[in-house]
Amino acid sequence: MQSKFNLPKITRWVLLAVWGLFAIFPVYWMIITAFKKQRDIFQGPFLFPFLDFTPATQSWERVFGQDRDDILKGLGNSLLFSSVSALIAVVLGAFAAYGLARYTYKYGPYRNNDLSFLIVSQRIMPPIVAVIALFTMFRTVGLIDSPFGMILAYTWFNLPLTVFILTDFMKRIPLDIEHAAAIDGYKKFAQIWKVVLPLAMPGLAAAYLLSFFFSWNDFILALMLTFQKSSTLPIVITNMSAQMEPRWWLISAVGILAIIPPMLAVIVLDRFMERQVLHGGTR
């Protein structure tokens, strides 16, 4: 009779539980800090509301009161810049990836793989290397501290990785599907728009999520290319901590607001990607 004690399975569950606690504890710490008073933060650590400390709402009164305009402006700018730049990067990257996946290029010694590496190498380069040149160019054409300038900068930042990711998805789509669409009377653009892109939708969603996350979490580009009008949420949070005595309770409250949009994006697009795969997405 086989023993019900499965040591490998129990070990996996224990390791997953430990890793889950390790991953979620910083979020828990941020949440309870957002409901602490100043003395509870510096006299702690207090981990359990109503047991170690009495929850307070002073940070949220600042978020929705005195600091509301700055926080809402940073939140709105981050949402606008991240979502629009990710969409543009995915649209442009999808057509570029299709070209690399379907056609053969030869520019001197460079072939398709060389071009793919050349494109993704722009993303390997740290943004700090190019940010000074970018600042000079943006100042010359008047794009410093402008929404269009930030969207353009984030699109430049995310486009190489988007092309690199989507090229692999495009290669997985059988070419026979496009031939069948051509027999049915679809022109080339219609084949891409109505056949290829729907089949590559899991890859498009994944590329959009990555582009959104990188733009949402960016600090260096926003620091160098914005001042007040187009400042993003990371800059607003940094300004709260750049004081003699950082207001940790307020920073934690704004941090909770900062993780909500990425969480919603993951929930929506994850379900969409799962539905696409189950209905015969790329394999």
Structural summary, described in words:
The protein is mostly helical and 283 residues long. The chain has two domains: 1-60, no CATH class; 67-278, MetI-like (MetI-like fold, Orthogonal Bundle), CATH 1.10.3720.10. It contains 13 helices and no strands. Helix 4 runs parallel beside helix 7. Residues 277-283 have low confidence and may be disordered.
Task: Sketch the major β-sheet.
Answer: none
What is the CATH domain class of the largest domain?
Mainly Alpha
Question: How many DSSP-defined strands?
Answer: 0
Strand content: under 5%
Q: Into which percent range does the helicity of residues fall?
A: over 70%
Derived structural class? mainly alpha
How are the elements arranged and paired?
Layout: H1 7-33, H2 38-43, H3 58-63, H4 68-102, H5 112-124, H6 127-141, H7 147-172, H8 175-183, H9 188-199, H10 201-217, H11 220-225, H12 233-241, H13 248-278
Helix pairs in contact: 1-13, 4-7, 4-10, 4-12, 5-7, 7-10, 8-9, 10-13, 12-13
